[in-house]
Amino acid sequence: MGYVLLFDAGNTNTKICLADDQGLGESYTLPTRPANTADDWGLKIEAILARQGVSADDVEACAISSVVPPLDPLIMDMAQRFLDCEPYFAGRNLPIDLENEYARPEQVGADILVGCLSARLTYEHRNLIVIDFGTATTLACVQGTAFKGGLICPGILSSTSALSSGTAKLPKVDLEIKSPDLHWGKSTEECLNQGLVFGFASMVDGLVEKLSAQMDDPFVVATGGLSRNVAQVSERIDELRPELVMEGLWMAYYNR
């Protein structure tokens, strides 16, 4: 069995990973630019394959989770021209084996469903909450084999950008945490750092507490670019899975 090229196409970045029947390989992150051409994506993919020592002929398929519709035809054209393989889009020609109880199922992002599938196939707990710290912060609720719905909140980076671009004296800051204990900042950078990371941790902890009224003792999984930062200070996140969406794509493809 050959390699499968996995794409997690988000509004800000697109993660790319080679996988085979043994699991995931190394991941790469590129900026999502739908204005680019299929050839541009193809040349970047060729560079990734060359770095991995893999021939284009060894790639049997592309499995894609995308929330950026303008990007989809570019990846499709790239897969057919540069790799001569079939593109599988999660939720379309790549089934996601979950009941979708959303009022308008077509509105659910593929990344949310793929992450929920991965959590469902990984954990035995009946009640799951999957928190994705991406461009937006999303909380997805799973009971048994059903996606029940969830919450959408501002993202950490988008909030940080809004603060720095909308104010004259607030600088951009890193979001690294040096201590799990909250303390008042003694510089503007420190105030922002503490407020953003501990603020988002408190937000998701509070939301999980309220959702627990509908979901008895949910197991909480966190994923996404800044999940590690928040998980360090959260009281309700049970496990950190940065590659949850990639794992879900891999599972969906090999179980199709």
TrEMBL record:
Listed cofactors: K(+); NH4(+)
UniProt-annotated binding residues for substrate: 102, 109-112, 188
MF terms (GO), sorted A to Z: ATP binding; metal ion binding; pantothenate kinase activity
Residues annotated for ATP binding in this entry: 8-15, 135
Active site: 111
Pathway stated in the Swiss-Prot or TrEMBL entry: Cofactor biosynthesis; coenzyme A biosynthesis; CoA from (R)-pantothenate: step 1/5
Family matches, as CDD domains: ASKHA_NBD_PanK-III (cd24015)
EC number from the UniProt entry: 2.7.1.33
GO biological process terms held by the UniProt record: coenzyme A biosynthetic process
GO CC, one annotated term: cytoplasm
Record key words, sorted: ATP-binding, Coenzyme A biosynthesis, Cytoplasm, Kinase, Metal-binding, Nucleotide-binding, Potassium, Transferase
Similarity section: Belongs to the type III pantothenate kinase family.
Protein name, as recorded: Type III pantothenate kinase
Organism: Pseudodesulfovibrio profundus
The gene coding this protein: coaX
